[in-house]
Fold each of these.
Amino acid sequence: NPSLKMANHCLVPLRNLSSSYISRANICTGVRPTFYKVQLLFKRSRTNVLKLLQHRPVTTEAIISRRHRIIGGWLLGCCGMVAGAVLLGGVTRLTESGLSMVDWHLIKGMKPPRSEEEWNKEFEKYKQFPEYKYVHRDITLQEFKKIFYMEYFHRMWGRAIGVAFLLPAGYFLTKGWVSRQLRHRIIFQGSVLIFQGLLGWYMVKSGLEEKEKSYDIPRVSQYRLAAHLGTALVLYSSMLYTGLGLFLKPQGYSSSAKLLKVKKFAHITSALVFLTAISGAFVAGLDAGLVYNSFPKFSNKWIPDDLFALSPAWKNMFENPTTVQFNHRLLGEATGAFIIGTWALARGAGLAGRARLAMNGLAAVSLLQVGLGVGTLLYFVPTSLAAGHQTGSLALLSLALWLMQELKGVKK
């Protein structure tokens, strides 16, 4: 057998491995002597060597699968950076640092003040705006530097996301690594990312404007804040869902009525978590977490008296702190109850592996999130608890999207 003779010729004594032996293996097999293939020659039997001799070029399916894993890992990395931006933005707002930078320049704004003269110039600009006049009147230059750097790092992190996404995206698109459907998703994500940056400055600008009635604490528009957070969550969700679909191999499930219902409930859960998070942005924008700091009642009442204090009535949903807090509480409790109900249903639906892990994690984090929300309310919105509550909402959304992705293959 010629192949057998060739295999015997290749299986030389290899106690003292040298480059000549590797070259000899290369000549015999006709393939590149990678470390893995050399290991096959040295450590496996004659049968495995024969298999190596029958090596064929990598299939098109294997190339596509490898590219999908690379793109999926890249999207999940960008997704993690977006999550960091959301959390950093929340802490920036909680520490009242978001209005410390009073102008916006894409390139020029990347360089912070360095000399004492530059810092004093930046501080003097800050003194011309409402936040200094009505909130930080007694702030020192050193204290100003702290809040300035908080907002500066938030902005620079956003620029870093742009570089981390747009440069690889351009490479993948020009090299033809993506399908038509994936190309559309990447273009959509890039567009949302650019829009998000512009929307961030548009939001900050609303807090720098002098209001006609300047008796209130200067703050950004709750509408723009909700739009800014909502856009970030859309971008995060799109990257996470797409990345998971490319990176993870799908698990097969046989369809059943219960499993189809769990799949439907997973979609509803994602929508509820998203909606609750947006209502939280209105709570943050109006400082509505400081209105009724009791639970479960509102100052010994189940329904507060000033729930519809504004006219017309629709304005209460977005501009009345009492109504905004009431709605957020109601949505949070409903979302938590719905998740626990979905978890109870899924127990008998035959979930296994990653889907079961996602479902159990979703139920556990929902209980933790409700606890963080109540604690944030009762302790008058401390930064640590409020930041943890915002992190919990992002974790809930992530687990709900993961569950959706795992059940994607369940068909009617």
Amino acid sequence: MVLESTLICVDNSEFMRNGDFVPTRLDAMRDAVNVVCHSRTRSNPENTVGLMSMAGPQCQVLVTLTADAMKVLSKLQTVEPSGFIHFLTAVRIAHLALKHRMGKNHRMRIIAFVGSPLQLDANELKKVARKLKKEKVNVDVVPYINYYYNTETKSEDSK
């Protein structure tokens, strides 16, 4: 079993109010975060999970890394939609929070739930990706979005 510190980044932008997922994207994301938290903490009692919001006036770490999944889930219920997503800033802050974890032998993982279209600079994204790869941080992105919004980015990546 692998020891792992996971920081879950949730999208709480205005796009999460959409009802294309039943009942809303935000509620569907809450259910998914619940499953992830419980699976991480049950796989090994020493695993830690944290929570972070990616939208609003600023990105915030809502719960620092903890082995108590209920702390994360109770704080997740207070998250309300506001503003626009700041994806790269959130990933950088999540990386910083993971650097200061208690168990230095834990692997680092960021799980980002994204439900709004991303307006990203390709060069900035590559810089962040290289840094995370160099420091062995695994990043999982879970999309809650219609892919037609990001057709430009997809066509550039496939070239």
